[in-house]
Amino acid sequence: MRTVILRENEPYSIEYLSRLFQCSNEQVIQYLKSLGLMNIVKHINKTWNIDLNDFLDVDSIDSDTLNLEKGVYLFTYVGMFLIDGACIIVYPKYLKNYRKDKYNGYKDLKQIVEVIIKYQANKQDFGGDTNDGKEYFNILSLTLDLFDNYYKYGLYRNEMDISEINGYGQILWNRTMNYSIPYIKENRPIYFDYYTSKKVNNFDDFFHRLHACLLTEISDNLNDILLILEVEPLKLSNEKLNDFGDVDHIIQLINQELSQQFVTSRHNTLKLIKSYFEKSYTYNQSDVVSLVGTGSFHNIWEEACSVVLNNNFDDTLIDLKLTYKKTHYSTKISKIVEQPKWYYSRDEAPHLANKTLIPDIISINNEEKTFSIYDAKYYQIILNDEQVAKQPGIADITKQYLYELAYKEFMVENKLSMKENAFLMPTDEDEKKIIGYVSLDMFRALDEIKSKSIKIILLPTRKIYADYLRST
């Protein structure tokens, strides 16, 4: 299987992709059309009224390399997918040395896949919508669940009853009397040989064979990907899935078996097998792109930061043993921020707006009596002595100051001091780094604002993701 390694939001030409995919320009265009329908790829040309240096997540744009007359393609997706027998790996935009990961045992890739799978499992989001409403499915997530289930419980099995002579099971008296010759003593039969019952695994059972065949066929199709993820491919059957009938027939039989199977582990195995057939075999196999990944990796970055930094956003006052005179103990920290009041000119009774300021991360340390406000940004900021680029906008900066102002009375009442007000951005380096700050003089002049500036903090993604994966 060919492996093609790419990076999120990096511009690629048709010619470059055709060399990577080892096919003609025309074939690459067909691939890109399919991927475009799934929101995996975007096409940019000269009609886009944008500054490419601001839009693309690369250090600089070489206008000679990027022929905007023909257009360039961006993969707005992070993860892995299969297309026409090739395994495509798209790394996050912040990984500078992503091509070296192959020679490091794909450590970064394995961690990223684990993070995506955990996030999607928590959010129950195993797929996404394409432009035409068609669903795509992260088939590798289900594949790994199937393998994990197999290593825990083995192949699906049904027992059958057999009889044996002089075994240790229950005596089958009817069979014994019909087929054994007794010794008669004092008009009473004495049996020296008797039939007993025994339960054994039925290796010819339809679902046992189907399970073995499915795991084998998945292993054959995804062999290289499984090896990358350190999952041992399985060879359990010489049968083919086509031997078991069409998909509708298989699903019908699984539903029948589910209705009479009450062992939890076996019930779960059947549901996984059914889900695989329902999801992966509903597509035309010539068009399908099998994948694990997301087009919204920024959500994963935000979630990982929220979990690792112990976001108290949804905790209540009573949970944190705090108070606030303007509300009750069951109020969430997120609800402390006041709502806008709307007044009709002829009526002084206010209408409260449904929405208000919503901080990204609120971290409260009750022991140290500190309060921090963070905004996780999936940005690749450039901030040095020569320039600033790809930075948060004025609205983001303003909101960080307003969040602090909104919680001012709450902090005073609970004797909490402002520790940090910061933007959190990913880096592939190994240490946390504060690279600078941003400020607005209009807020610096306010005594109520203790954070005279908003820090720009780069967080090491490998450590953040490791902590996220360890969390419950």
Automatic annotation (TrEMBL):
Identify the EC number(s).
3.1.21.-
Q: Give a Pfam family name.
A: RE_LlaJI
**Assigned keywords, A-Z:** Endonuclease, Hydrolase, Nuclease
Q: Which GO terms describe its molecular function?
A: endonuclease activity; hydrolase activity
| Enzyme superclass (EC) | hydrolase
Q: Which InterPro entries match?
A: Restrct_endonuc_II_LlaJI (IPR018579)
Q: Which domain of life is it from?
A: Bacteria
Protein name according to UniProt: LlaJI family restriction endonuclease
User: Which organism's genome codes for this protein?
Assistant: Aerococcus urinaeequi
